[in-house]
Design a protein that fits this description.
Length: 300
Amino acid sequence: MNICSLCRKPFNQELPIALDYGRYSCDECSPQLNTCVSCGKKSEKIYESFDYGQFYCDDCGKKLNTCILCGEQFEKELNKSASYKYEHCDNCAKIMNCYIEETLRSIPQSYRQCTLQNYNKTPGNAYALSKLFENEVKLPLYFYGKPRVGKTHLSVALLKKVSKRNNKCKFVNVTYLMAQCRMASGDKYSQTADELINGYIYDPECLLIDDIGIEYRTDFVREKMYMLIDGRYSNKKPTIITSNYSLAEIADRLGERIASRVGSGTVLEITGEDYRLSHHKVVEENKTITNKTEVDNEKN
């Protein structure tokens, strides 16, 4: 007994696998599944384009693809092993690669390898991860918790993911930003502090602001931080923020107006032991297991 992948009704006859890669269709639905959307030709085997669910015969599949960025169809010789799935035309692919490279340049060297795949999942970050994977997130996204629990790793991983969707993204550490602003206040600097802040407001589509609240509590810092946070908030720019402090503590350190805007989206606390030490332990344990396996294999 098989279940039709289209109408979900059971049927007895086992048909050749159609284009949906591993699922079967009943007699009624097979003609629909095996019809090229470009030329209308019916075929025993047709191929799926990148637009998921739009099927093409062998001839049309080699020519037609739709760029997910600009929406234009482009012609490109396709590779059957890749299931005829090309995401971008050549022009958009170049732009996307530039955005990814620019994002990586703004991220400190020690965080450039951070991904969701190598993020060490613990009970302390389980709730935050569940919210992210369930897409129950409203921006701005605010991660807080004591130092070294993995806030920056997770934030960088998300930033890199966003950049791969053809978005210009940037990472900035607040201490570094405030140092730049103080330098810009001098006579010899070609850019004013306000111009510098405006660059972070309008230039990146998504901005990661790391370690808010750690800088000295001066009127200058409060003024520039409010300008940045309010500018991103008012222009509806996606922002990810990390801090060692809760919203109540941010309100005390930087003022209610900043805390209000930071807390207007999704606020997630990350707890747990020192992430860097625990992550190092996991890596070392994996190395030990790998080495033991290699020794056992040599003995055998």
